[in-house]
Specification:
The protein has about 130 residues and is mainly alpha-helical. It has two domains: about 1-75, no CATH class; about 75-130, no CATH class. Helix content is about 60%, strand content about 10%. The chain contains seven helices and five strands. It has helices at about 10-15, 20-30, 40-50, 55-70, 75-90, 95-105, 115-120, and strands at about 5, 35, 75, 110, 125. The strands form two sheets. The chain has a three-stranded parallel beta sheet. The protein is elongated, with a radius of gyration of 16 Å. The model has no long low-confidence stretch (mean pLDDT about 95).
């Protein structure tokens, strides 16, 4: 079965309902079609919701989880869920930082960084180059 990739503006309209007609059209589409939500789009949505709309991390996570529960929506479940867990737990880290740490952990890799906050909060996977 083919799948339709979702753009961030479709996801944001559904979460924010700031353009109700577009939010309704997006929701109706998702009811009838298999869709894929890329990691990049998830990251973009988190960035916009946090930086532009100034929403709380728990609200952002909860809003995205509602979308993830729609049967027709597929995404990189284990990685995105781990990234969100880190994102909520570590306020000093951006979602991109949390994503990188989660990806390293799930892949049993190390994350090489000079970012002290990442090293401090994710010391099991993050380290400086030696």
């Amino acid at each position: 079965m083919t799948s339709t990739s979702l753009d961030a503006n479709v996801v944001l309209r559904m979460i924010l309902n700031d353009v109700p007609e577009q939010a309704d059209r997006a929701a109706e589409f998702l009811e009838r079609h298999a869709c894929y939500l890329t990691d990049v789009v998830v990251s973009e949505c988190v960035f916009v919701l946090e930086k532009v709309y100034k929403l709380d991390r728990l609200f952002i996570k909860g809003s995205m989880e509602i979308l993830f529960e729609i049967e027709t929506v597929n995404f990189n479940e284990s990685l995105i869920e781990e990234a969100f867990d880190l994102y909520v737990a570590h306020k000093a880290l951006s979602f991109a930082d949390c994503y990188s740490a989660a990806e390293a952990a799930l892949g049993q890799n190390e994350l090489l960084t000079f970012d002290r906050a990442i090293i401090k909060k994710c010391s099991t996977v993050a380290k400086e180059p030696q």
